[in-house]
Specification:
This protein has one domain (6-211). It is built from eight helices and two strands, in the order ααααββαααα. Strands 1-2 form a two-stranded antiparallel ribbon. It has helices spanning 6-30, 47-70, 73-91, 93-102, 115-140, 144-149, 151-173, 178-207; strands at 109-110, 113-114. The chain is mostly helical.
Length: 231
C-alpha cells in the first residue's frame, strides 16, 4: 500500500481519524467524563460498532463490484469471508457459540481464561479454518495476476486475526486488571477498527487498477462522445 494515490491516503487519514476519535471517546467514558455507554468501543450497537458495520458493508460492496468487473473466484472467497464477519459482529455469533460450548464445562477458568472465552476460541478456530480453506481454494483457482493483487489482503487478515483472536484471549485473561483491560480492549476492538479501515482503502486501490492486472480481459477503452463514428 506504499504507492497509494494521494486521494486514497487522504481517505485513509479520514477513516483512521474517526477510529482514533472513537478511541478517545471510549477513554473519556472510562475516566467518567462521559456517561453514555454507547460511546464504548465494546458496546454492542454502540456508535463505534455501527461505524464498523458500515465499513464492513463497504468492503462487501467493493468486493462484489470487483468480482463483477474481473470475474476471478478469489473475490467471491473474500466476499463470503467479509459477509460472515459482518453477520458475526452484528448477530454476536461467536459470543453465543462460546456460551453454548461452555455450558457442559464445570471449571470457571483455565490458564486464567474463562470457559466462555475458550468456547469462543474453539468456535472461531473451526469456522476460521473453514473460511481460510475456502479462501485458499478460490485463490488457487484464480489467475496469477489476481493472486498477486490480493496478497495485501492476506496480510491484513493476519493482523485482524491477531487483534481479534489474540487480543480477545488476553482481554479475558487480564480482565481483573484495569490498566491491562483498557490496553487489551484497544488491541482487540481498536486494532480491528484500524485494520478494517486499511482493508477498505486496500480494496479501493484495487479498483483503480486495470482489469488486465487481475488476469481478466482488458476493459474496452471508453469512447469519447466527441469522436465521430467511422464511415
Amino acid at each position: 500500500m506504499g504507492n497509494l494515490p494521494k486521494i486514497l491516503w487522504l481517505f485513509l487519514l479520514l477513516l483512521v481519524s474517526a477510529d482514533l476519535a472513537f478511541f478517545a471517546l471510549n477513554l473519556l467514558l472510562k475516566l467518567n467524563y462521559l456517561t453514555n455507554p454507547l460511546f464504548s468501543i465494546q458496546k454492542d450497537g454502540g456508535y463505534a460498532e455501527i461505524y464498523q458495520y458500515l465499513k464492513e458493508l463497504w468492503i462487501i460492496l467493493l468486493l462484489a463490484i470487483l468480482w463483477l468487473r474481473v470475474r476471478q473466484p478469489v473475490f467471491i472467497g473474500w466476499l463470503l469471508l467479509w459477509l460472515y464477519l459482518l453477520l458475526d459482529d452484528s448477530l454476536q455469533l461467536h459470543e453465543q457459540a462460546g456460551e453454548w460450548l461452555a455450558q457442559p464445562v464445570t471449571w470457571e477458568k483455565w490458564a486464567g481464561i474463562g470457559a466462555d472465552a475458550w468456547g469462543e476460541f474453539l468456535y472461531l478456530s473451526v469456522v476460521g479454518a473453514a473460511l481460510v480453506a475456502l479462501l485458499y481454494w478460490t485463490h488457487k483457482r484464480s489467475a496469477s495476476g489476481s493472486q498477486r493483487q490480493v496478497l495485501p489482503l492476506w496480510g491484513l487478515l493476519v493482523l485482524l486475526v491477531f487483534c481479534g483472536g489474540i487480543g480477545d484471549m488476553l482481554h479475558s485473561a487480564f480482565y481483573d486488571v484495569p490498566i491491562w483491560q483498557v490496553l487489551f480492549v484497544l488491541l482487540e476492538d481498536g486494532g480491528e477498527m484500524v485494520v478494517v479501515s486499511l482493508m477498505v482503502v486496500a480494496l479501493l486501490a484495487l479498483h483503480l487498477k486495470p482489469a488486465g492486472q487481475f488476469g481478466a480481459a482488458s476493459e474496452p477503452e471508453p469512447t469519447s462522445p466527441l469522436k465521430g463514428t467511422p464511415d
